[in-house]
Amino acid sequence: xxxxxxxxxxxxxxxxxxxxxxxxxxxxxxxxxxxxxxxxxxxxxxxxxxxxxxxxxxxxxxxxxxxxxxxxxxxxxxxxxxxxxxxxxxxxxxxxxxxxxxxxxxxxxxxxxxxxxxxxxxxxxxxxxxxxxxxxxxxxxxxxxxxxxxxxxxxxxxxxxxxxxxxxxxxxxxxxxxxxxxxxxxxxxxxxxxxxxxxxxxxxxxxxxxxxxxxxxxxxxxxxxxxxxxxxxxxxxxxxxxxxxxxxxxxxxxxxxxxxxxxxxxxxxxxxxxxxxxxxxxxxxxxxxxxxxxxxxxxxxxxxxxxxxxxxxxxxxxxxxxxxxxxxxxxxxxxxxxxxxxxxxxxxxxxxxxxxxxxxxxxxxxxxxxxxxxxxxxx
Length: 379
Ligand SMILES: [Zn+2]
Known about the structure:
Elements lengths: L1 H6 L9 H13 L4 E5 L6 E7 L7 E6 L18 E3 L2 E3 L7 H9 L1 H6 L6 E6 L2 H4 L4 H6 L9 E4 L8 E4 L2 E9 L3 E2 L9 H22 L12 E9 L5 E2 L2 E9 L7 H20 L6 E10 L9 H10 L5 E3 L5 H6 L4 E3 L14 E3 H20 L2
Parallel strand pairs: 3-6, 3-7, 7-16, 8-15
Antiparallel strand pairs: 1-2, 2-6, 4-5, 5-17, 9-13, 9-14, 10-12, 11-13
Helix pairs in contact: 3-11, 7-8
The structure holds zinc ion (ZN).
Zinc ion (ZN) binds next to loops.
């Protein structure tokens, strides 16, 4: 099943409909009905299916079907054909996260073997790797057209550890508009790049302040809200006072910190210290910051049905945190208790020669078998 799913090139820019159709047909072959939640453009879809009783709240196994590009990566073998070598399965998405999705699907016959008292839901999404947006229309249907799960297990790679918290990701784009002039006449121009430079200095101060504030829970690595800029562009030529400068910046915050406070701080700094100098030259100048990505964090919820169940099934007595973001925060925001627990190591995700260890696959199968037993007696 892992080989079959990996063979669909579901890089986020592609449609995932062939994979979803395959899964729908596979489930139908086992007498399990699926509900598709299509994207606005209709070229992608999420899939929701229930195994077991329709009138009880179940446990959702959730995974994204898209994967990151292989472009420019030095792969030793075809990324879309799984190769087994040294106890590992190589291929794009084996670890992040078609491995988990495939194991859940392969377990369907076992789930169906005896009647379940608590249903098991499958919730497969798209466009997770781009901005974590594809799962949102499906989540919006939970409690409406689709049943509201009692717990959700998001199978991102955690080496089957139970992850109860992760940071948020919030991305912003700041565009500074200056006023062009010949560089011999800088008194007639408003330099967008230099203005952006002043804003970036404030961004660096915000970064330092976040480091100083730290992480009171002591659970995250790095142990603070991070502030970063990863892309900048601006200007036309060395002898033109630049009209535009644009930079993209990102906040990965602790789950209880509102990243928009940093957006407001940059705005206030700009209005007080940067904009007046631009406006003195031309009224058309400006500083505009917009939010482009907003992935909510996962907040610890000790004793939640998801955490209790996952710890029992994983045979674990502790929870952990991760620094990457997942769809779990979105399920939690919608009122579904959620944790992250899946096979494989995040260190192999997004890499060339991505792989999953077969021992991890086996651990996950064991987890699913214990889930089936628990669902039979009732969770
Ligand atoms: Zn992933």
